[in-house]
Design brief:
Largest sheet: 6 strands, antiparallel
Helix content: 10-25%
Strand order of the largest sheet: 4-3-6-1-2-5
Number of strands: 11
Shape: globular
Strand content: 35-45%
Length: 208
């Protein structure tokens, strides 16, 4: 769908990272792991970028996590105030959480948004969750800590992920692996899943 939506809040959630919470338009049913396209006029030019949903549900509102990468568009989003409006389209993507009994989420950099959302959604449904997150300057630390306290396995590292992935993959019935991040991380994560003996088909969102 296409809609004009209002901003509810913009909050810092880590080094050079903000969470932008938007109103959910009527009929919007995005899932954690899907993404939306946000469009705005920045310095007189219409620009669009895609952002993954980073809230466990989209009832009433939803969150996206924005890394401040030095680009004009991300800086524009970070400067929005409650009540400002922006254009959105979506949701898009097929690699999202669908109630699997055990979610193993491998996240690199901005992939932490869908990772924490999927973990929270799984826990809320009474299911299991494991997160392996690679980043030198982690974001969403409070939400990750809360997920850990609720029983999720959470490993945050700035190095090799193979060992953590091997521990996260259990082979339990209904176990589903998810991978979110840029191409180099996706390649490393898929290799780690293979080495761990993961026998399923991972749901992968490559950020480019």
């Amino acid at each position: 769908m296409d809609a004009t939506v209002a901003v509810r809040s913009v909050a810092e959630v880590g080094p050079d990272t903000v969470a932008v919470t938007l109103d959910s338009p009527e009929g919007f049913d995005g899932k954690p792991g899907q993404f939306v396209r946000l469009t705005a006029t920045v310095d007189g030019e219409e620009q669009s970028r895609f952002y993954t949903i980073s809230s466990p549900d989209t009832e009433g509102s939803y969150e996206t996590t924005v890394g401040l990468d030095g680009g004009d568009f991300s800086a524009y989003l970070a400067d929005l105030d409650a009540g400002d409006e922006i254009e959105m389209s979506g949701p898009f993507g097929d690699d999202y959480y669908e109630g699997e009994a055990r979610a193993v989420v491998l996240a690199g950099g901005p992939g932490v948004g869908p990772a924490v959302a999927i973990a929270e959604a799984a826990l809320a449904a009474g299911n299991e969750a494991a997160v392996v997150y690679l980043d030198e300057a982690p974001a969403h630390v409070e939400r990750l800590d809360a997920a850990r306290e609720r029983g999720a396995s959470v490993v945050v590292t700035d190095g090799d992920v193979d060992g953590a992935v091997a521990e996260a993959v259990t082979g339990a019935p209904g176990e589903q692996a998810f991978v979110y991040g840029f191409a180099d991380f996706v390649d490393a994560a898929v290799g780690a899943l293979d080495a761990a003996g993961y026998g399923g088909e991972a749901k992968i969102e490559n950020f480019g």
